[in-house]
Batch of 3 targets.
Target 1
Amino acid sequence: MAGRNLESLQKRYNKAASADRGGMRGPGGPGRRGPGPGGPRGGGKPKNTKQTIKRLVGYVAKYKFRLMLVGLCMLCSTATSLVGGYILRPVINNAVDTSVSAADRVAYLAQILTILACVYLVGIISNYVQAKIMLSVSQAATEKIRNDLFVGLSKLPVRYFDSNNTGEIMSRFTNDVDNIDMMMNNSLTSLVSGTISLIGTFVFMICTNIWLTLITVAFIPVFLKGGAFIASRNGKYFTGQQAALGAVNGYIEEAVTGQKVVKVFNHEEVCVEEFALLNDDMRDKQFKAQFYGGVMGPILGNIGQIAYATTAGIGGLLCLHAGFDVGGLSIFVNYSRQFSMPINMLTAQTSTIFAALAGAERVFAVMDATPEGADDRLEDKVEVEKIEGHVILEDVSFGYVPEKTVLKNISLYAKPGQKIAFVGSTGAGKTTITNLLNRFYDISSGKITIDGIDLKSFDRDFLRKNIAMVLQDTHLFTGTVMENIRYGRLDATDEEVIAAAKTASAHSFIMRLSDGYNTVLEGDGANLSQGQRQLLNIARAALSKAPILVLDEATSSVDTRTERHIEKGMDRLMQNRTTFVIAHRLSTVRNANAIMVLENGVIIERGDHEDLLNQKGRYYELYTGAVELD
């Protein structure tokens, strides 16, 4: 199997990004990525840099008092630097004045050095206080950005996570936020202090010699044009660099989590080839971004050296023929160099600034993504004390994308305490029905009611508290066994947790663990078997008091022996609950009150086990082995 080329990977990413913006991708829908490395990656171009800067400023503007202290310290630091330089003028003039005795010159020098020491000590203290306060501001702002990003992410619908690579999402929290932090801590300070220094230096230069000032100012357009030329090319390369970095991170994340699959199918060489393509692409984009970011400083620095030499040469002529003092020339050439330093310093921060802005746009894109339930109307919400579990679907149709309908005019009902089973081929729409019950997705047409109330009239949190799910894909969090089971109901007591584990037939294996219920699970429960992980998943659902239960291939990862072992526990779990079961093993649905046979999004048969066998239709063929579920 040949690996995909870079153009193919980028094309797939662009398609994914387009689908994400339209919000039309999801499980079972077209465009859903297959498992394993090689899914879509990438990033977009900057859309609104001004708006991004405005939002970033909003995060630091909350600390106005601290920023005022930082500004005061910057003024003080710049003033001490400029004043300290200006004090040298009389010192130099005094040193070359032969009419003053050597002893007087030494005494005067000692006096000036004492004053300079005090001035620069104030500057050192100002720099220290400024750095400490600014660091606290940048860290507080970065913390707020991370919090806002995580809060925004938690509010996004399941559709978003189905459409976006986990590594891409993680890169927002790591690379992008780190770049923002660097800009706030270093570049923002340099920007403000450089501006203050530039203005202050210009004022002192005018006070020293107006003609030399005009010569120095004449070089400003050269600085600006050179900086603008490089900056115009720098921004797009840094955006490309951030996107390429996210792509590499996403590929690594998929390759690591899917390592077993990669090895089973001998896919290592293809993975290496595809990673090499993405890595090579990132190298090219990083080279261009870093080259233009790094070359700006030396180019502008050399322009500054030319300006310095020109100023010094003309200043020497003024000393010889126009009566300009040597001390004045000495401090002016120092100011001339100091005048170009803030410009060089600001341009040197270009790399960090562009990387941060590119990262900030990616972060804000997640924050601005449409949250789940954004179009819900609060005035339409209905409050009920308790849900009984009477579920009705009336002519429900749904598609993950408009051009492909997954469910077509589905109608069924489940009375409280009944067990409804769904069987059918992969992609028939079984899991989609359960996703609609939980409002992970909203129906395209038709109506779903619970206890006679339209599903959309329930608050989503309240609805999901009343629907417990046991999914085929288990997920355990880092923490103890007790904490993982308690995830089903956070206010449950230890006794209730243990009772739930017994209901799910998980208690016996838990007690054989090294520390029982206090055993710490890490790496998604890597130290447990797949069956044991699923038993904990079932125990979570048992702990929940939800009147509606969804079992989506809940026993598919459990061997036949374990399945028989937990059958009684499952029966206890389903007792007095409205239960929807999706199963490939038809033996698990024999005792269902009603079995729905789905094909291509349509219910083609319905009835209990005996009724469907008597019909001698699709279910009969599946049960007798005449055909197999695919």
Target 2
Amino acid sequence: MKIIKYVIISFILFFIFRILFITNFWHNLEHKASDVFFMLRGEREISGDIVIIEIGDDTFSTLNERWPFPREYHAKLIENLEMAGASQIIFDIEFTERTNINSDSKLAATIAKYDNIILSGKLIRTQYNNSVREQLLSPISLLTQTGTKWGTVNISADPDGFVRRYELFQKRAKEIKLSIGAIAMAHHYKLDILSEDIENYPKFFKIGSNYIPKVTSKSALINYYGPARTFNTYDYADIIDDSTFTTDFEKELGTNLDQYYQLAGNFRNKIVLIGLTSVEFHDTHHMPFFSENNQLMPGVEIHANFIETVLRNDYLKQFPMIPYLLFIFIVTILLFIFNSLIRPTISVFINMVLIIGFIWFSYFLFSTKQTIIPILEIPVLIIVIYIVGLVLQYIQTVKERKFIKQAFGQYIAPELVEELIKDPKKLEYGGVQKEVTVLYSDIVSFTPYTESHTPKETVDILREYLTEMVNIITENKGTLDKFVGDEIVAMFGAPVDLKDHAYYACKTAMEMRHRMTELHEKWESENRDPFEIGIGINTGVVTVGNLGSEQIFDYTAIGDNMNAGARIESLTRDYETKNNIIISDSTYEQVIDKVEAKYIDDATVKGKKIVIRIHELLSIK
């Protein structure tokens, strides 16, 4: 039944956590944790096969031109890069609007001469009357009619504004348009973009022999190689600045520096991306390394990171969801059982080790296996389940305290009740072998007494007698075992260990005897008939514990030495003693220095074959 309870509660916790873990708030926390892993891993060496040509603030200053630049400039850029031996020229610049016909024609004519140029477009989504209108903006027809390939440059951010995914394609109705990164890779591997070499699967996007793991239906994780400007970057103005082109800066100097000539060797067999990097063009983005240098990354460099990832087959992938969910469910059950059973002072350290170990394991998977597993879920699960276990153990402790107080509050001393509360395991079902001292007290000739008195008189005097005797037992750290009619059975040394239990039993017997003397005087003054009691004490090993049923709790003791105690009490009828108290030799040996006692006889006890030495208890020293 306990296992079923653990599984049910664990499933409820698992279900609640799954609801939490699918919220945007939680996703943002996980993203921030993965960003920390990027920074811990640090910058990685790049292949050098990709270079970026930026149109930045220095470009505008050098050329003294406003945007958009004359398209003859882009034509010259292409010619210079082709002469330098670039393997691909990719424009992250949208030529979606017509400008001067001569400029457009010049660019179109230049593009038509080469088959390694990729242009860009974009899918635009606008909200219109509670519906979304989609428009695919392509380069002007003058540029595309040459057969030049173009791809989309859409960049999507997570809810926290950081870019961690690369969109492989855009879909409008049934039309799919690949991104410039995907087209660049298709061109690199000499693939036809309309062939089966490029295929969209539910979990992967295939480009030739490359299977790119998808994180959404159309995007893959970007395995960033470092912060902004990790890739070799050159200024646009320097590349078009050849012997035939004079910049505004060179006009001021009265000379032509020919920057292109000095840089041309840096583009041979390289994939070249051209893009805007000025913040004012709103194509700069937050990414995982942002906190390292507080620099936004231009969109063109995000495309570069994706292309580098594919070239090196260096994909980030998510840990498979179904095995992970099964794993976390099993972990939830084990954690709940562990934190419900182990003391919090111990489990807190083990839980801390588990948290540190899992975070290290997550980083190990990320840095060596390129695998992302939810970083914070299990640590939060451990913390919350520890708290739940803490609460459940507290509730269980309160229940046990209440039960112990109810079960023993009237039968043993308050300090012994507190001892049991500290260690409730002493009350677990079952018995243990333990040495105790048992005390039997019985009213002499009680049956004739009841016959000569009314039931009310008998009950009243019996209640007063039993109350006084039980008080003495509990005051001396004894445990009231049971009432058997008018007989009192008490034990010393259980359920809580008691040093000198034999002494406390003897002390109790003497105080009971003294209290009976006082009760006699009281009863006689009230014109009530008194009665006498006999007390027998024995020390020995008994079986003690919760020996009741599963329905009824009964903490008691059984065994030969319990029976011997009852038989010794019955001998008080056979021997003339001062206090009517007889103790066994096993008790006397433990209290020989603490009591005055007198040897009586070697008696044969009913039900036992051996002879027991018995002593009369006279007083406490």
Target 3
Amino acid sequence: MLSSKLSSPTMSSENESKNVVAQALVWLAIFITSICVFVPFSPMMPGNDLEQSWRFGIDQAVAQGLSFGKEMIFTYGPYASILTISYHPATDFMMLCGSLFLALSYAAYLAILAHGVQWRWALIYCAVLAGMVGSRDALLFSLPLLAGLSVFKIQTMEEETVFNGKPGPLYVALIFAPFGLLPLIKGSLSILCVAVVFLCFLLFMAKRNRLLALVCLCTPVVAMLAFWMASGQAVASLPDYFISMLPIVSGYTEAMANDGSTLELALYLAVSILMLLAISNQTQMRWKSRAFLACIYFVSLFVAFKAGFVRHDDKHAAISGSFILLTALLLQFVLHSRNVRRAVRMTLVFALCSWVNAAAYFESRYMEMPVDVVYGAMTTYSLAWHGLTGRIEDKNWARTQFDAAASAVRASAPLPLLQGTTDIYSYGQSALIYSGNTWSPRPILQSYSAYTPALAEINRQHLLGSRAPDNIIIKPESIDSRLASLDDGASWPILLLNYRPTGMANDYLLLRRTGTIVDIPARDKPLSQHRFFREIVEVPPSSAPIFAEIEINQTLLGRIQSFLFKPSQLVIKLEQKNGAIKFYSIIAEMTKSKFLISPLVTTSTEFKALYDANGAPSENQVKSIAILARAGRFNSWNADYTISFSQIAPAQSNETTNNKDLPDLRTTYRIRKF
């Protein structure tokens, strides 16, 4: 008995030592995993598909010093490479430093949440982070959530010693500093950042910590200014960045929506409800704390829901699938009662099912349960090690790969060298960027993203301004089976007026600016016709281009549906003079701007025919149209709409061009109202 009492202090000391070692190993695992997951030591190199084109277009915009919010308007900001992990010599340092900052912040959040929790849960989270998360968007979405949960855990601990001392404001500033960087990576991240900051502000105010509440509000703003200036952007242009983001965000739901698996939607909603119920059943917690936790989870889950299921393909569904699994695991770090833990475990089962269905996607779909999850984790660590050692051994390691990839892009889509500045009206931005030409993009560099009248007008005004490119390379193409003439449709008349064809290259039409830039004279708006869905509408016959403007409005239910989820999709039925009938997707906001309705133009050759005196081939003329709404959801649209037609007929002008080596093909236009 005496011997057991004497040995008790030794055993206690050994247990404490083991706990210290275990805790240190957990922190080391968190730190290493965060670095490997966040920091793209082995970045993506240039390619020529749609995704890679806009990714490297954003990097090139940073390299050329374009002003974001004015000269470059897109979903992403100057630090986009942190999310896209695309390499560019001009942005690599920014990408590595910004990613490292977020990695350290993420590790700190996890260390705070892991305090007092069984070590195996921290290791499970690290394993999921490294091996299962196939979406970088989900990773960045989880960062504000972790920050909010860290504040929640510290503020609800029995001994609130972390924030009560003199270093308290500094700790709060460190927690919220990443919120200044996230919106500069992707503008839509600002929604989640603002929501979390506001909720934490209310929590601090409820605890009567006004100083900490003020630090919580001010830190993201100060950090954002610092990151903005570090990227080479002018401070005065920061408001423009967020103002220009409004039509991008507001128009995204309708313009980019497509349908996917109903099962994935059901699983995501079921898991979300289970998590919110688990939080509400935490009866030993004060109602204010439960409300804070429920609100921060609801906002995070809603943002991830929209991100994953508005544009419901494998890549975007992976955002929701990965995020739902991370959020379910995080409940284990903040809820501790036995009944709640049962709910948490049930939630995890549902979350795993959701992940298997929605998030088992990463590049070539190599992640499949269960063996390839281990392979995914090994790949994460090995890629980080390979990239880190490669950069240490050869400082030009990444640049050498970049140059080789750029050469491959040039070889796959060769373009001629053109005198002056050049833009490409195609989503193949990479082909132009790496062709050796002087890239001069329109503000919304991808035409399919100019999906509101305001955005279309910005691109149109660009062609009329001093920065209009000398050359245009054009190939009508769009996404989602969309009518190609909708993409930057308002700019097509300006192209016809101020540019003329000089040749073809690899299915691209080459256009050259003809001289002084002029606009189409303003005229009274054409008379509108009142029409209904499915009604056959005759298109005025003409050999000259016919443009249309269509006003389609949502119902009240449709506006609510768009906010909560997405509206039903619209289709236009075209009947050509040769009897052919074709269906294309249309975007209601895009049809409000003038767009070509006849002839039907789907190729560069057909676009070139618009310049011919005889007009496009008669078989391309559109005889009639009808507007349809896809079935499958509540009717989002009013049954009636208005449509107007206008004819833009070219007539040879006596004006001479400033380019003496080019023949005079300058045209003026008269507008005929129907």
